[in-house]
């Protein structure tokens, strides 16, 4: 398994490329602000051919470069339908002064947009990625898992020591706690979490120390691999 990434733009949003190995096909996760050059460098370094872009949600800092990245290689973008409108209306994902700042920014959908659903298994680039709908940060937030490798791309659902904010349009605190309880806490402790911002962590580490997972725990089902 090859996973490489970098923090993109002023928001320092983690963008990842994922492939079975160097020299093979890959998927790109969350190409954010000014991510095009960094993506190109990773593809050249590891001799990768992208077949799709996967979006954990529609916020601008995660989708800023999706149209040029997809367009340059004629690949589709995958996003949950509840966040699809944010691809062409980025200001709708923000409120107050921040939303006003982005009001004049024009983005467009890639030519080929495909919609994600909860529980779907995407077979792409020799990978099998399970889609978990994890609303709370946005209505259409998802996480992507590689179950056999115990790896989770959590987007802005779960961070090391924290969770995504819920005060923006489409966010809801009770909903994100439910997503943490039903989609994160049942996973094995060894599951590696690759978040949308900040360093990687594990489910076990967050289960033991993250106050938001502790708050969500009463809603959780049985855990595995503990």
UniProtKB/TrEMBL annotation:
<dbReference type="Pfam" id="PF00753">
    <property type="entry name" value="Lactamase_B"/>
</dbReference>
<dbReference type="GO" id="GO:0046872">
    <property type="term" value="F:metal ion binding"/>
</dbReference>
<dbReference type="GO" id="GO:0016787">
    <property type="term" value="F:hydrolase activity"/>
</dbReference>
<protein>
    <submittedName>
        <fullName>MBL fold metallo-hydrolase</fullName>
    </submittedName>
</protein>
<dbReference type="InterPro" id="IPR051453">
    <property type="entry name" value="MBL_Glyoxalase_II"/>
</dbReference>
<keyword id="KW-0378">Hydrolase</keyword>
<dbReference type="InterPro" id="IPR036866">
    <property type="entry name" value="RibonucZ/Hydroxyglut_hydro"/>
</dbReference>
<keyword id="KW-0479">Metal-binding</keyword>
<dbReference type="InterPro" id="IPR001279">
    <property type="entry name" value="Metallo-B-lactamas"/>
</dbReference>
<keyword id="KW-0862">Zinc</keyword>
